[in-house]
Write a structure and sequence with these properties.
single chain, 116 residues, mainly alpha, rod-shaped
Length: 116
């Protein structure tokens, strides 16, 4: 049977070499770096590049997280402004139409539940 162990000539090698190469290959694929023309040939190189790819992925994830957070904050800010605007319109309507205090409280309570 032809396996990656035979391909890498590890059948008589140390078990730690197998684990390091396997872990390197896994991180290489998962991090979307892929296999290219340049690749490490020693275990120390594989460990170094594995750590480097992991750190790169963490920074990439942090950058996307920050962008998502900023986008969400802007959306919440816009929604809050719309709610305040609608509440001011309702308040103006209630003032111009001489609505009783009990009705005003019910409207404010309903809108409070509806918008918040």
């Amino acid at each position: 049977m032809y396996t990656w162990i035979i391909l890498q000539k590890l059948e008589n090698g140390d078990v730690s070499d197998r684990y390091i190469r396997c872990y390197y290959a896994m991180i290489n694929v998962v991090s979307s770096v892929g296999s290219g023309d340049m690749f490490p040939v020693t275990d120390i190189g594989r460990v170094f590049f594995t750590l480097l790819m992991t750190v790169g992925d963490v920074f990439f994830a942090l950058a996307f997280g920050m962008i998502a957070s900023i986008s969400l904050r802007n959306k919440e800010s816009d929604e809050t402004e719309q709610i305040i605007s609608k509440m001011l319109e309702v308040n103006a309507f209630l003032n111009t139409n001489n609505v009783t205090e009990a009705q005003r409280e019910r409207v404010e309570q309903y809108l409070g539940f509806y918008y918040i």
